[in-house]
Design a protein that fits this description.
The complex is a heterodimer of chains A (318) and B (673). Chain A has one domain. Chain A is built from 11 helices and 1 strand; from the N terminus they run ααβααααααααα. The longest helix of chain A has 34 residues. The N and C termini of chain A lie far apart (49 Å). In chain B, α1 runs antiparallel to α4 and α10 packs parallel to α12.
Amino acid sequence: MVLISALLVQALQMVAVVLLAPLLTGLTRKIKARLLRRQGPPVFQPYRDILRLLRKDVVLAENASWLFRVAPYLIFAMTWVSAALVPTFATGLMFSWSADLIAIIALLGSARFFLALAGMDVGTSFGGIGSSREVMIATLAEPAMLLIIFTLALVAGSTQLSTIAAFMTSPAVGLRVSLGIALIALTIVAIAENARIPVDNPATHLELTMVHEAMVLEYSGRHLAMIELAVSLKLLLYISLIACIFAPWKLVASGAAPDAYLVAIAAYIVKLAVGGALLALFETATAKMRVFRVPEFLGAALMLGLLATLLLFVSRSL
Amino acid sequence: MTPVLVLLLCVLAFLATAVLAIFIARANQSTSIIYGISLAISAIAFATALTQLFAAASPAIPSALVLPLGLPWLGAHFRIDALAAFFLAVVDLGGVLAGLYGLGYGRHEHAPQRVLPFFPAFLAGMNLVILADDAFTFLLSWEFMSLASWALVMSHHREADNRGAGYLYIVMASFGTLSLLLAFGLLAGPAGSYDFAAIRAAEHTPSTAAVTLILLLLGAGSKAGLVPLHVWLPLAHPAAPSHVSALMSGVMTKVAVYGFIRVIFDLLGAPTWWSSMVVLAFGAGTAVMGILHALMEKDLKRLLAYSTIENIGVIFVSLGLALAFAANGMDLAAALALTAALFHVLNHSFFKGLLFFGAGAVLSATGERNMEKLGGLIHKMPFTSFAFLVGCVAISALPPLNGFASEWLAFQAILQSPELPQWGLKIMVPAVGGMLALSAALAAACFVKVFGVTFLGRPRTPVAVEAQEVDRFSLAAMFVLTAFCLLAGILPGLIIDSLAPVTLSLVGGQMPAQASVPWLSIVPIAESRSSYNGLLVFLFTVFSASFTAYLVHRFASRKLRRAPAWDCGFPLADPATQYTADSFAQPIRRVYGTLAFRARERVDMPAPGDLRPARLVVETHDLTWDRLYLPIVGGVGFLAEKLNHLQFLTIRRYLSLVFLALVVLLLVLALWS
């Protein structure tokens, strides 16, 4: 019985993240449009886009290889598995121990690896420019992420997200400067990883800092749908990650009563909406950077991560 | 028969094969015979080493033997303990696969008499280094290994580049052996007890330990490729035939790591905490510089050699952590760090072997090592490209393959560092962790470049268009390694458990047994702290990918049309418009290269009306070469120039010089006492 309910909760999360992800993207787009005084597409537009894309033919470039066709499913699956392992509304999921935070980030790295390769596959200059910039940004974001993980592990004594979330809800955590710094750094990394303004513009590929959209330029039909879904999932993952570490309210532990789950799910949806709204607000308020300014932006995250760690040592010894 | 005797007989058999190869090298079937025999001997040696490693888990009785060879008062000591058994297994597994690959690849060799005798001799040398249990035998075998590999580097000596590489290699190898000689001289003390058991038993003063550490970093580090002693490696490793490159990069560097571990962890006694800082600094610097060099490279084999330098850096970071924990008596953390190092040793021998085999396959199919002349090989060489892709994912430390498993352990060891009492280490280790993450991310960038430029896209030259899949032996060797990369990635617990006797004997601790953890996860400390399950991650990914693909194809659409590439409406027909290795590395060169290589870009734009083409010139400098080696070379040249006068003196002057020298020496002797 316990096993079945644990399995059910895990399955529920797996389904929930996929179902909610396009909604989050739609909501962010809608808020952005309203902030710009445009009407904007309906919130449910991403679902329609994905369904439409799924039903369309794939137009494949003549020299595309098997890798190009396999990559969308692999990218989607890796992102999906990572998103399913982040505590969204419940901690201590059945399989949450199969990957700690380092492994989750690395799994997203695998997805990026295949996406960058897919960008190179057709042999166009657009794909190459996207891939080369994507990996450059990743080389800055990943060390920054590791230092953030290091700070969290130092505070919570663990890299398991469930343990970190449980620790953050406990009174032991207190108010720490390091955590504030880590939050800023994590936000910067999340913005870069999700190819949002000011690092990249998700709305267009015809700009000089084209990164993500340039990579997926050759994709169409169901392949593009998979990639779009993976992009939405990744955004949801990062917002869930920030929420479960820095706003772990109303998370349920395994074996709680069913009504607690309902509250947790409602709280999670609220958190996602707030996260999406804040992202839209931030994106509207900033201008996009030139691509070679991105290292400075991400370098700030790296330095903040290191600073958070060092501050923690100092504050611990005092 | 004791295991050590079996292994010595294997060494003897290797040497006999080498002699045999001299006589039959020009015969028809010589390639198959020599590689076949080498493969068989390596297989026996591998099986012996493996049984010894597993036997060592129960009461560890090292197998030892003394032969009346070498120095008369010393004899030749040989011994296998858990550490030696592990490294012997790595070396001989490499030997098996290189032999298998050589069965096919060796047929393309135009001068087999320059390769065949040295191949078994090289394997014999590496086995002997690990078997040796006294300083004399160790150094003799070390030098034998160096010379055998030097001969293999020089096998295509008609190319001027290879001659230069061979010259640099032999200079650096001699320098390394000299450092090791001095190190062992110091350890043996004035009594000259060169037996490892005697060195282990003796007390070493802190100053001896410090100087030994420096000499070991110079000696073993130069063979392993630690920055700044790495300069020979990216020239020499690619110069050899590809299966030998795989052995040199994947295995011989590990023999150097073995030498370092043997002396620093085993012979030298209790480590000091500051020694770990030196090792950590060298390791982290090596990892980042190695992979940055690799990113700038467009020669496929040279790039792989630079990536070897990165991996050696990763291994040394873990070793440094193990030293730091061991110095503070944190046995469990030290065992974790040492396990990470040894696991990475094994993993690197897998994926670097695989990648060099793949590069060799590309070389034999196209005759080209320059990535910018290749492209689109995934259509022509589907099997090679699949194996190579697996190698690329593995070496980029991406889950669920093996490279990630060992780097994950290294990160877990880094996360233990706040418990260290020394402030220097506390502050240094997170920075080192950041550099490790940086090198992993750069490695992923580098191998996207390698695979993307070489195997994906459109062919850039006619040779790439006409490439053909390689022979079955080469493919078999690559696919065996592909399987190993996957298995070590999804079942890391088995390997961690088999490393327990090694860590127990070296740092006095061992990781918790992983076999008893449910679902085959790995749990370094406690499940609430961290755990990773490669098997589940792999299964979940494969399952959800195929499930999604099935759903989409079943219920949505499975139609597919081929059309010209879209490329934003302007598809350019010329394959030269694709991104090349250089253009792919451009963003990274601009971010990191301005500092690391003093990279400068200059645009030479002709004035209007001038018909000369515009040019973009990129200048990069290898700073270690410019700042460290050129001044030394200049100094040696200057001194030689000055001393040259002494060669043209008259006999009277020579006699007076001799007389003067004698007087000065006598004076010194008189004043000294």
